[in-house]
Structures are given as structure tokens and as C-alpha cells.
Amino acid sequence: MTTATQQLSGGASGTSNATRWIQLVVGVICMIATANIQYAWTLFVPEIQGTFGWARAEIQIAFTIFVLVQTWLAPIEGYFIDKLGPRLMVAFGAVFIGFAWYINSQATTLMGFYVGAALGGVGVGSIYATCINNALKWFPDRRGLAVGLTAGGYGAGSAATILPIAAMIESSGFQETFLFFGILQGSLAFIAAWFLRSPAKGEVKASAKLVQATRDYTLKEALNTKLFWLMFFMFICVVTGGMMAVAQLGVIAQDLGVKEFEVDLHFFVMAALPLALMLDRIMNGISRPLFGWISDNIGREKTMVIAFTLEGFGIIALGYFGHNPWAFLILSGVVFLAWGEVYSLFSALAGDAFGTKHIGKIYGVLYTAKGIGALFVPVGNLMMEATGTWSTVLYTVACMDLTAAILAIVALRPLLKKHVEFSADLLKKENAASGGATAHA
């Protein structure tokens, strides 16, 4: 098999190997500090609705705005990552996430929450794109694992704070909770930012296991490939179901009648929804490095088939058995386990296919698929109200997951192989042309 750009394959020293793991840990810390803006939002929605009396769909527009801004600005953020480096970008994002939650703590109108969501999207997008970009550059030989651990920090980062946030909302109200955790999380990310840096040339080595392109593509070149747009479509298909679950799990639990069910495990008792949220965040965090590591060893396409199929059938089962509290807990965990890996698999695959020199811009555009998936969050509410059941919504997104699983094996695999072969031939021609021009001069 061909490997990624060989200029990177100079053996990493013990010092640089330790350095890249330190960089990975710092990136994970930054991701943990940003996670609650997305993953704890579902706890705030019922409280906002109860306080102001707005329709649920109107409140959830804030979530959609957040995701749209976070994702659709990613190409611009990718440009500034390459230009300014990781430190300034993460510090910039930290200021924005703190300010976003401060605005939420003071908001008394829907527009106030919409503004807070937009600023939060800028902050989280800056940090998320930077840390993923940095992981891809430091670990060309273990991209799946590295971006999985980094994205896992975002997916599982809220697990430790779900219960404190829920408790503080109960005791002090959602406004005070927004303020306290905004200051805490923004400060943590700001401090961590100053420990980040990009790798110097020759500090990292390439993979010898995976099919990877031998050439660095520009954004324009990547956008001109069929492979990019196939990845983009598959990303949309898979991310939609997970986005729906993230934003609506609390609402779904309430409508299914399991929200207040007391789970008694003898050594502790907890309501079904907070327990489900905590478990789901853990499963979501485990998913990203787990499937990333698997993909480093068996390939991205095969891993996608396994994960996407599992998510599709998990969502179908949730729609069918979700009225049972225990089934709700287990199946929501399965859905999050199978969904979280999209953020490690697609970013690693982008690095494999297009190189890392311009990966900030390329993955930035690919990541906008998440924004398109977010558009379906309020649509899910409308579908539920029109049909009277969440099953219609869940079965729809399950079909999208299974479609992506089929495409991974019947379309993505052969297209990636052809793309890598073409990249190798193109690089040879470019090197020959460059060598000929030098000799002539």
C-alpha cells in the first residue's frame, strides 16, 4: 500500500513522540471545556420554556443557529488556523464561548438566546477545528486514534458536568448555571490554548498500514474530486440522526413518558433522563477513539459499515422500544456509541485522501455537513407534531444511516482506491516536471 507524504516519515525521536502526546492531551482539555455548549443544551430547554413560555421549536432554533455557525464558518477558521497557528485560534474561541454563556445568562428574549448561540458557535468552531487539525498533523500514522481521542474530549467532555449542571439548574436556576459554567469553561480553554503548537517538519512519521494519498491537495483540488462529495453526502446522512438525538433527547424522553422514571441500581437512584445523558456522553466519548483505532487497523470504509449499521438499527429499536425506560437507557447509549465516530472517521479519511498541508480548509468545508444535519433538528419537531410520534422521525434518520453504510462499501471503497492511485501518478508527474525544469535551468 502507498503511504502518506514521505517527507513526513523521518523517524520521530523520543522527545518529539512525547511532545505530540502532550499536544494531544492539551487538545483534549480544550475540547472538554467547549463540550457543554452543545451537549448540555437539552437540560436548559425545558427550563427556558417553563420560564418564558415560548414554543419548543422556537427555542430549538438557537441550537440550530449554534451548529450552523460552528460548522459553516469552519472553512474560514481553517484559513486562520494555517495562518495564525493553534494558540491564538483556541484563545480566541475560549473568549467567545465564555461570552456566549454570559449572554445566555442575561437573555430575556429569543433573540438574546439566538445571539448567544451564534457567538458560542464561533467559539466552539474555532477550538474544535483547531484541535482536530492539530491532531491530524501530529499523528499521520495514527490519525483515527488521535482525532478520535480529541473529538472524544468534545463528545464525553460534558459527562462529568451533566449532574452538576442539572443540580445547579435545580437549585439556582438556569441563568446562574449559564454564568458560572461559562466563566469556568472559557477560562480553562483560554489557559490551555497557550500550550499548543504545530509540528515542525520531520517530527512525525507516516502510516505504513492504510491506503493514503501521496500528495497534498489544495481546497480547490479536493472540491473537484468525486470522493470529497461522496464523503460530504455520507457525513450528512450519518450526522443528522445524532444531531437529532443530542438536541431532542430530553424532549423525546418527556414525550415517551420515561423522563421521570427512577432508576434504582441499589447503590444509587437517579432519574432516567440525567442518567441517560451521562451514559450517552460517556458512550459518545468512547466511540470516537475506539472506532478511530479500529479504522487505523482495518480501514475507514469497513469501520464505517460497522458503525453506521449499528446506529441505524439502534435508532429503529429506540423508536420501537423507547417507551420502556430500561430500553430507552440502553438504546440511546447504543445510538451515541455508533454516532460519535463520524467525527474521527471523516476527519481521518480527509487526511488520508487529501494530505495535511491544507487539511484545515478541506476538513472545514467537509465539516459543514454537520450544519446541514442541524437544519433537521427543528424539522424533527414539526414531523413529530404532524404525525404524533417520534417513531416517524427516528425511522427516517435510521434509513439515512443505513444508506451511508451501504455507500461506504459499494462506492467509497473503490473510489478511494482509484483516488490514491491517481494521486500517486499525479505526484510522479509533478516531481518529474519539477526536476526537468530545475535541470533545464
TrEMBL record:
Q: Which SUPFAM superfamilies does this UniProt record tie to the protein?
A: MFS general substrate transporter (SSF103473)
Report the superkingdom from the record.
Bacteria
Task: Please indicate if the UniProt record lists Secreted as a keyword.
Answer: no
What are the Major facilitator superfamily (MFS) profile domain coordinates in residue numbering?
Answer: 22-416
- Keywords (A to Z) from UniProt: Membrane, Transmembrane, Transmembrane helix
Transmembrane ranges? Answer: 21-41, 61-81, 88-104, 110-132, 144-166, 178-196, 227-253, 265-283, 304-321, 327-350, 362-380, 392-412
Q: Does the keyword rRNA processing apply?
A: no
Q: Enumerate the InterPro entries for this protein.
A: MFS, MFS_dom, MFS_trans_sf, Oxa/Form_antiport, Proton-linked_MCT
Which protein are we looking at? Oxalate/formate MFS antiporter
* Gene this chain is encoded by: oxlT
